[in-house]
Specification:
alpha+beta; seven-stranded antiparallel β-sheet; five-stranded antiparallel β-sheet; 14% helix
Length: 292
């Protein structure tokens, strides 16, 4: 008669328990709403969309636009825009941050410039101009009325002036971008005996972001001993409103708005693996140092 192990029943019970565990695991699906490790990549078109139940809009959408470009939209729960990175090929992905007031005609609070790739679109920031002792003068030669130097943020300078000349006169505005020469960007006649307003809207040609721009407002009287006075009403930078307002690029800094930034390790499988491998080597080096 064969000899049976004394713990045979215990062995059978253990085997039955393992079979039940394996059978249960085979019927259990992995969680589909959680990623504990790794990178999610959507390639060859498509979108990632988060849509509230019963709504015809998404609170978040990123991916391919109808024209083949890629963009991103984040909405508030009422469906209004909060942040957009425009998925249109012609505007090179202009980003915009929107206000909550959907009744407002113009709701864009922050953005980069649509037509000038190196400038801020909004907010519109002031440009410094300060009065001089010749703000009111009787000189028949050009005299400084207002001067100032400011960092460049926006693509277009907006200057609004008003001038009174007892016997008539002239006013002109000069600008000098950092490292360049002063240019007369506008000049006009002031008739005698009345306040004359004038607005200068000038793209800041050859300027880079945060370059200095020097601005001079000069005037002269048509007759000796007859005064001319120029007052500043406003001066600020603004975004372009049409492609023809885009400033010329700085000399030697034409740039390449079609060139992307370096790829992040998580964006491609190969680079991700290289990144992991380099981290592994670095970690091994540290462990070796610790052991020694």
């Amino acid at each position: 008669m064969a000899t049976l192990p004394n713990d045979l029943l215990d062995r059978i019970r253990a085997l039955e328990r393992k079979v039940r565990q394996l059978a249960g695991s085979a019927q259990t699906r992995p969680a589909l709403d959680e990623i504990r490790d790794g990178v999610v990549r959507i390639t060859e078109g498509g979108q990632l969309v988060v849509a509230p139940p019963g709504k015809d809009y998404a609170t978040f959408a990123a991916g391919e636009w109808p024209d083949g470009a890629y963009g991103l939209v984040a909405r508030r729960m009422d469906g209004s825009y909060a942040l957009t990175v425009e998925g249109e090929a012609e505007d090179r992905g202009t980003w915009r941050l929107w206000s909550r007031d959907t009744a407002e005609r113009d709701r864009i609070l922050l953005m980069d410039d649509q037509h000038s790739p190196r400038h801020l679109g909004r907010p519109w920031l002031p440009l410094q101009l300060h009065p001089t002792a010749s703000q009111r003068t009787t000189d028949t030669a050009w005299a400084h009325a207002w001067v100032g130097i400011s960092p460049v943020h926006n693509a277009v300078a907006h200057i609004q002036l008003t001038t009174f000349a007892e016997a008539g006169g002239r006013v002109r505005v000069l600008m000098r971008i950092e490292g360049g020469e002063a240019d007369v960007v506008d000049e006009w006649e002031v008739p005698a005996g009345k306040w004359t307003a004038h607005t200068v809207a000038r793209p800041l040609h050859r300027s880079g972001f945060l370059d200095d721009v020097a601005i001079q407002v000069e005037h002269l009287s048509a007759k000796k001993r007859k005064p001319i006075e120029t007052r500043l009403l406003s001066t600020y930078g603004r975004n372009t409103v049409r492609a023809t307002e885009a400033p010329e690029p700085p000399a030697g800094r034409e740039g390449d708005t079609g060139k992307s930034d370096p790829t992040l390790p998580v964006e491609t499988d190969d680079e991700h693996q290289d990144h992991e491998a380099s981290n592994g080597k670095a970690g091994a080096g540290k462990r070796d140092q610790a052991q020694h």
